[in-house]
Write a structure and sequence with these properties.
The protein is α+β, with helices and mostly antiparallel strands. The protein is built from 1 helix and 9 strands; from the N terminus they run αβββββββββ. The radius of gyration is 25 Å and the shape is elongated.
Length: 179
């Protein structure tokens, strides 16, 4: 009788240890150190000194003109035809000046999936005073089958704590998404 109890105890112990090891292996292989949206490096056109070109915006890996250089309080509108099977929009904008940031008007039909600011490495001999080596990346989830409007304001850092509608922008970018 003692022999059968010890045999069943060994079987239970073996099953428990096997289950534990299997669970640990599953957790280690399924958990990555990078998020899905961050795993892809940001590609952005650079000028001859290595700074992000400040006259472009990248939307879903396509370049569109942006007129940040020139008059203040300007803006532009870009229309994008979305694929029927996609509801993710990736927008990469040049910061241009360290004293200005892009901010997003979050609406009920937009869901901000991720935000990041990426600095491009600049060689010492190419370093300039004034321009920023950074780009801002917004990844959004939008409602499918609907026309959506994304508003982005490029404003001074003094405006960062204000509500979007109260920010005094130096540039307003409207992106209209259609399916």
């Amino acid at each position: 009788m003692n022999y059968t109890k010890s045999l069943s105890f060994k079987k239970v112990l073996t099953i428990l240890i096997g289950s534990f090891l299997l669970s640990v292996m599953f957790l280690l292989t399924s958990c990555s150190k990078e998020s899905v949206s961050e795993s892809k490096e940001v590609e952005f056109p650079l000028d001859d000194k290595g700074y992000p070109k400040n006259n472009l915006v990248m939307i879903n890996d396509e370049a569109y003109p942006l007129d940040l250089v020139g008059e203040s309080h300007m803006g532009s509108e870009i229309e994008i035809k979305m694929d029927q099977d996609s509801d993710i929009v990736e927008i990469v904008l040049p910061q241009r000046l360290p004293i200005n940031y892009w901010s997003l008007d979050e609406k009920e039909y937009l869901n901000l999936v991720s935000y990041s600011m990426i600095d491009f490495p600049i060689k010492n001999e190419n370093m300039l005073e004034g321009p920023s080596p950074a780009v801002q990346k917004f990844v959004l989830n939008v409602a499918r089958e609907e026309t959506s409007e994304i508003l982005l304001k490029w404003a001074n850092v003094d405006e960062v704590d204000k509500l979007f509608k109260d920010k005094k922008e130096d540039y307003l970018l409207k992106i209209k998404l259609t399916y």
